[in-house]
């Protein structure tokens, strides 16, 4: 089960989407949340301080979500961090590519609290198993 | 080297040309216009901005008859009433790969019916120009609404061209909802149509509405000048976009739709052309709507406006007099 005090990094280039994800997390009583505006900034933050969970958009400038995921999985210090990928509706090929790259789960926009809760529980239940 | 052709060097055409001067993909550019003054302006744009991009040969023509055998992208920015004959003439002598058409694309339903099969026979991929598909905000807004969710969309402002620009917004809303079928309602275009600045063209004030299942759109044009504001209201998210001011307000149900402000990144609309051409040259696709996808909606809108004009003026029209 995800712990309420775990540190979560929300990565999206669109400010509104970051706020939406953070509002959902707030509803789920996760308050230790940081944000990054693209994959590059996310990678810097992940290397600078410990995080327990990453929620990342797919389409971003500089370093995309899939590139961030691949960088996380290739980094020994970061590779065990669970990653939830956020994708736009209908991008099946993205999902397949993300699964191959080691994503823990994905969620399709628009995001809502119930779907986020379900995906997070699934990820952490699998980790606990 | 790719060859880009601009047909029509009026106001809109010159904006396209300004954008083409920034092309980073090396290409040749030709401009066709009957008017000496328009070609002179086009030459001025080339002289002033040609160092910004990778344009090679730049040529000006009075007649389509002088154009090379092959054109990679033709941008058509003529008056809508000349559109069909211009394209027919071009197709007779020139191999064209992509055609980008300014709306109003055609004025009569018969033109759509004749031109779509003709373009298909010539294997031309055709797109309706709509710069909003290159504004990041609209691509993001689309992702906040679930398929099938009722969404209410509204455009309001003064002097924005309800008749000529209705198709731009109907196209945008259709792409947001993923469907192009609308029941249109023109009953609230309350005032008599007036001839606008383009010779023989008409414009309107009032409201034009559309319905698609439980989703609605309202296009409102007021008397006098006021900025264009777009609103999107879904079950969980609300957006209000003021393009001129470059800002938006948004709210989410989880926060009781309390409004928060948002700065917008908006490319200068004319410069979108550069990105459209680069997308077409490098991938064969672009973010615009394919003409065949929007044609039925465009023809339907034209036909309903034509009938409205006939009723309001008591005169017979074989085409929709908007441009």
Mean of all residue-level pLDDT scores of chain B: 92
CATH topology group of chain A? Rossmann fold
CATH architecture of chain A: 3-Layer(aba) Sandwich
* Low confidence ranges of chain B: none
Number of helices of chain B: 8
Please tell me the total number of domains of chain B.
2
CATH topology tier name of the largest domain in chain B = Rossmann fold
Output the number of helix runs of chain A. Answer: 5
The main sheet of chain B comes to:
8 strands, mixed
Radius of gyration from the alpha-carbon trace of chain A, in angstroms? 13 Å
CATH class label of chain A: Alpha Beta
- Topology order of chain A in helix (H) and strand (E) letters: EHEHEHEHEH
CATH level-4 homologous superfamily of the largest domain in chain B: NAD(P)-binding Rossmann-like Domain
Second-tier CATH architecture of the largest domain in chain B: 3-Layer(aba) Sandwich
* Rg estimate of chain B, integer Å: 20 Å
| Span of the ends, CA to CA of chain B | 34 Å
Superfamily at the CATH H level of chain A? Response regulator
Number of domains of chain A: 1
Strand content range of chain B: 25-35%
Question: How would you characterize the overall build of this protein?
Answer:
The complex is a heterodimer of chains A (129) and B (323). Chain A has 129 residues and is of the alpha/beta class. Helices cover 45% and strands 17% of the residues of chain A. Chain A is built from five helices and five strands, in the order βαβαβαβαβα. Chain A has helices at 15-27, 39-48, 65-74, 92-100, 113-128, and strands at 8-11, 33-36, 53-57, 83-87, 105-108. In chain A, helix 2 (39-48) packs parallel to helix 3 (65-74). Chain A is globular, with a radius of gyration of 13 Å. Chain B has helices spanning 11-20, 36-49, 83-93, 109-121, 136-142, 162-177, 272-283, 291-313; strands spanning 3-7, 27-32, 55-61, 70-76, 95-101, 125-128, 152-158, 183-185, 194-195, 202-203, 206-212, 215-222, 226-233, 237-242, 247-252, 260-263, 289-290. The mean pLDDT of chain B is 92. Chain B folds into two domains: 3-130 and 272-287, Rossmann fold, CATH 3.40.50.720; 136-263 and 303-308, 2-Layer Sandwich (Dihydrodipicolinate Reductase, domain 2). In chain B, helix 3 links the parallel strand 4 (70-76) and strand 5 (95-101). Chain B is 33% helix and 28% strand. Chain B has 323 residues and is of the alpha/beta class. In chain B, strands 8-11-12-7-13-14-15-16 form an eight-stranded mixed sheet, with helices on one face. The interface between A and B is medium-sized, with 15 and 15 residues.
